[in-house]
Design goal:
Creatine Amidinohydrolase; alpha+beta; Creatine Amidinohydrolase, Chain A, domain 1; about 375 residues; 2 domains; 11 helices; 6-stranded mixed beta sheet; homodimer
Chain lengths: ~375, ~375
């Protein structure tokens, strides 16, 4: 029995119910089905989960989903809709008719549907079971993330090579006669990702002062002697899995503060890599890095180490477990990032982000890419 | 006063509250801010909306969001968390502390947060105001969708040219010495889209029997004399707006059933274009097409016209209003697709999809691309 079945029984519910499109990572995980329009998923203990889809999606869902498939018509929705015009009440009646008992739902379950369901059956919230299941990646899932990471490293190589080979004219990086821009590097990396069947999103190629803010995407001409942060986190088109990686590079001569930060971030990453183990909490690893940076005079407020040390990666680019102030116990099978960073407004930032799997003996880094400030 | 402010006042609430990342289209619409991690949005009548973000996102949110910005610390979250470890209860207390009164939320608001908020303040659901607001596109929004549509047509042109120029060897389309595949056409189209700053998703290039199922993505070698359905619906990276377009083409000699279906679908599209008007319901336009197809012997069950006639397009690729069996009244500013299709399992399918704006005088089609079965 898996953690979800246990949670259903333990809560005294008859089934776990989800509602959403496959943009919802829980739905994608439970059904392995990709759909733009919302569907209903019902899982009873001891039975295979079932998705309720439109007639039009029936054939595709049967081919693609790991769940068994029922049409809305088979689920009785159209008969219910003859009496009940409200969309949410009709769906609630359909679900209650299929489940015959209390339902367990995600904290993110739509409030309107939960409210209508509550008038018919007991609705309870699962806060941990599905998060825990999704956190423990299977061998297949790890393979899928690894495949994305291979594409990410190929893209990163392409981007960094463009920067390394750039000319310098009047302080700006150049490619032939034109300035080398953030957009040009991003576009070249995206072409690689696409060819590898991945969809990129909001890839960061930030330069100089922009790099002091971890999530600024970056734009315009890249400059010599300044830090360039590249952060790539695409999703595989077929499977929906992500990977995530960052590097900081400089063409020319970086300022002493940036060299110092790069050294500190590299050391912090090594320190964290050695401490990520099953049974340790994400908070402990995060605190160890905070303490290390603190001894060097870097804080955690508006400047210094302003974000978490890492996060789970899977069907969401940020998911459990967290390596941050409220980080839970790490377990075997977790796939997490190890991404210390330092940021000084007015000067710039440095981030190095690897990804890896937590195995019995420790953290096995998937990322193979070198860390070089001046490549 | 906009429709949302009216709804807040009418419901007797003190504010509208949203929670989510910018994957949530409502959040994107309300804040114009792109973020992977969930944020809180609070809108009181007569005031600008406010987003509550992490310290790390403060600077970026101030630059990029149309809302005013507050950090979690300013919102009192960290003090609350010292007493309250549960994430949802802590967030609920933070929101209640900022709003001082009842809250209005989306039907999709997370159940766990609504449940905790309900213990502190009145929580009411807005079923219509935000949907209506998002449905009436501004000139700026229409411009953004039009820009995506230009990229889509350039991509479509590239894909169809590859098919038109393909050789034929043993019934398969070929490009030089190799078979021309669905993946090759998709990749070439995606390169165009990327160069135009759009992220493609699940682009359909389906051939032959696959085309009988509207959402099968398609794979493998493309074949001569068979229908090829191309459906492209990318999203602009910067603005988050979509466009959506389909064409059906054939290299070689299509079967008489396919020619017949192509004619019927073209006629249906013209018929619908003339009937889409402010004040008409989406259902009426849909029924007119159903009736037209019905006279030609095509049904709406497992084969024939198996999907809706169209849907709104904006920050979601499928949004209100619907041109289907439960289609609401259409209004000026709606951007909708007009996409009749016919599907015969065992034979294939034909779909033609345009997009346009509903103006005072009728439906203004943005799509400029020709409809030719054998291009």
């Amino acid at each position: 029995m898996d953690a979800l079945e246990e949670a259903i029984l333990k809560s005294g519910s008859a089934a776990y119910v989800a509602f959403g499109s496959s943009q919802d990572a829980d739905m994608r995980y439970l059904t392995r089905f990709s759909t733009t329009d919302p569907i209903v998923y019902i899982k009873k203990p001891g039975e295979q989960g079932t998705v309720v889809v439109s007639q039009m999606e029936y054939e595709r869902a049967r081919r693609e989903s790991t769940a068994s498939v029922m049409t809305r018509s088979e689920a009785g929705l159209f008969e219910i809709q003859e009496e009940e015009k409200d969309r949410w009440r009709a769906l609630a009646r359909m679900i209650a008719g299929l489940v015959h008992g209390g339902v367990l739902v995600s904290p993110h379950f739509p409030y309107a549907l939960a409210k209508e369901l509550s008038t018919l059956v007991e609705v309870r919230i699962d806060r941990a079971a599905l998060v825990t299941m999704r956190g423990r990646k299977s061998e297949w899932e790890i393979g899928m993330i690894r495949q994305v990471q291979v594409a990410v490293e190929e893209a990163m190589q392409t981007g960094i090579t463009m920067i390394r080979k750039a000319g310098i004219r009047g302080g700006l990086l150049s490619r032939g006669a034109v300035p080398l821009t953030s957009g040009m590097v991003r576009a070249a990396m995206h072409q690689i990702l696409l060819r590898r069947g991945c969809t990129p999103a909001d890839t960061i190629v930030a330069c100089g002062e922009e790099t002091a803010f971890p999530h600024i995407r970056g734009e315009g001409a890249l400059r010599a002697d300044e830090p360039i942060v590249i952060d790539i986190f695409p999703r595989d088109d077929q499977t929906g899995y992500y990977s995530d990686m960052s590097r900081t590079v400089c063409r020319g001569e970086p300022a002493p503060e940036i060299r110092e930060m790069f050294w500190a971030v590299s050391e912090a990453q090594d320190l964290a890599e050695a401490r990520i183990l099953p049974g340790v909490t994400g908070e402990e690893v995060y605190r160890a890095v905070v303490d290390f940076f603190s001894e060097l005079g870097y804080g955690t407020g508006n400047s210094g180490f302003v974000h978490n040390l890492g996060h789970g990666v899977g069907l969401e680019v940020h998911e459990a477990p967290s390596l941050g102030p409220s980080g839970e116990v790490l377990v075997q099978g977790n796939v997490v990032t190890n991404e210390p960073g330092l940021y000084l407004p007015g000067t710039g930032g440095v981030r190095l982000e690897n990804i890896g799997v937590i195995e019995e003996g420790g953290f096995i880094t998937m990322t193979r890419f070198p860390r070089e400030l001046v490549p």
